[in-house]
# Entry
Amino acid sequence: MRIHLDTDLGGDIDDLCALALLLRWPGPDPIEITGITLVGDTDGQRTGMVRQAVDLAIAGRTDIPVAAGADTSQGWYDPYPFGLPDASRYWPAPVVPAPNPPEEAIALLKRSIDLGATVIGIGPLTNLRLLEAAHPGALARVPYVQMGGFIRPPRPGYPAWGNADDFNVQVDAESAFRVLTAAGTNPAVPPPVLVPLSVTVETALRARDLDRLRAGDALARLIARQAGAFAEDEHLAETLRPDAPLLPEDLINFQHDGLAVAIALGWREGVVIERMPLTIALQDGLVVATVDPERGRLFDIVTGIDGPAFDRFWLDTLAPAPAPGMPRPEPMAPE
# Structure
């Protein structure tokens, strides 16, 4: 299976968790990553972070192309502060920025599509908009999975986030509107898959997971390092649990993007997907998706998951538990 990942890795750590799952995918069929493009980059900093993560995971390999796409300097995300945390706390070595003309990312996306790769979007849709502008209909030729899209609110007990909180779609709503109205127009290709915030909010990276990650390989230890720093910076459990009691007490972050990657690769434990006819509109600066049996175009919407099952799957993939009777490795000190 060929995969192209379009990501804004470098801020919220769920992008790193998603990339790690893709790099360590345990399925029986091999995964070929035909390209990784960065969206919302800033002078190549996010691209440099991806290169460091890939090098930690598969040291010595240079066969995964990585390219910077839409840059924050181009005004796509104004006035949203599209910042990055202190790299010295999140990364074990200095991050070497890797800027390039954004056109290289679009060319890499087009190459992946020509190879028949499934496109997984786990960031804003700006690069995909630029792809469609340069190559109309390109995205409709291959399977497309996007983390985002608001159809229903989260279940009671989880954060009561609404359409405006759908960062990936709404931070560059014009691009999202253009992409979601262009994707899925080829009846020979399965409908686009949307993995909404309303279900990803039922996943969790937890403090109890960190010892296993610290006892793992370099990639697992990188996630543990960033999770510790993210917990110090964000305090999500403390902030959200008063109004969302179903969240775990030791929540560090959600696995929004990791779940989207897993579903794109075929993971289905407890996953409910409903095929819905949707119309996509741009209203008051927000993308609005409406179920419309008469005029809608088909999308596959993830409407239910077993969050704890995914959390176990992700952790077992990134930091396998010792076999019965084998001693548990001692966690390494944070790097």
About this structure: DSSP finds 13 helices and eleven strands in the chain. Residues 218-234 form the longest helix (17 residues). The first strand starts at residue 2 and ends at 7. The mean pLDDT is 94.
